[in-house]
Amino acid sequence: MLSNEVAALLRKRRYSPGKRKPKFFKKIVKLKSKRRNKKAMVVVNEDKEEEEEEEEEEGVSPLVKKYWFQRYDLFWRYDQGIKMDEEGWFSVTPEQIAVRHALRCGGGVVIDGFAGVGGNAIQFATMCHHVIAIDIDPRKIALAFENAKIYGVEGHIEFIVGDFFQLAPSLKGNVVFLSPPWGGPEYRSKESFTLDLLKPKNGYSLFQVAQSIAPNVIMYLPRNVDLLQVEELSWLSSPPLKVEIEENMLHGRLKSITAYFGDIAFSDISMF
Ligand SMILES: C[S@@+](CC[C@H](N)C(=O)[O-])C[C@H]1O[C@@H](n2cnc3c(N)ncnc32)[C@H](O)[C@@H]1O
Q1: Which SUPFAM superfamilies match (predicted)?
Q2: What mean pLDDT comes out for the span 118-122?
């Protein structure tokens, strides 16, 4: 279900990676020679004016380039028309990790409080959960809806534009998934990422709100997060919740940390 505001955004012409390429790309033109079996590959620069127009229109910056090279890690179906905005590029959960989160949920209603362009919501919906996907940015919800269509799961997701904290009193579910902003790619420069650095509110407030919605909470956090602080979150509940901390590896490198709180901690994914 989409609001008029979101539907209007979808109608506007937006950057569609499947159709147009951002500034940093070079166009690869395949020239077929007259002889059938001879092909020449020529690399030419995009027309400059077109680039400038695209950059202005689409808000694509060189920052995105690095993430574009990881596009299939982010969405396996990227080439089928996945859509992103700049923040989406560096904030989406890589698909393998999102699949893992979804496997751990078990079932029921999953509330994705910071849905972004849909990386997690899509995988939750793929595993047959009913998903409530919330984001404060209407453009993100519009992109998440489009991306969910690529995976054929848009019908399993309720898309809501709104502030997670304001909506919280009206929400109930089995699992709350929290993937809040980490403050941009600069999070990496911190030796230890403390929970007060999470946006738009610190990790403690966030966790307490989530607990009022569901008995199970999943938090997706930077790889340099202060693990002691994460464990301490479980003590905000009485009796303290079970907590499991998982290291998320991608191509043999530590990418992020996921904390599972409640009965889903140490749950056996083979049972789902
Ligand atoms: C790290 S991204 C989420 C990425 C998402 N897990 C994915 O895989 O696509 C965080 C998102 O939180 C949204 N956000 C920030 N403040 C919010 C709020 N108060 N309520 C709901 N969403 C918010 C941002 O617009 C952003 O899209």
Answers
A1: S-adenosyl-L-methionine-dependent methyltransferases
A2: 98
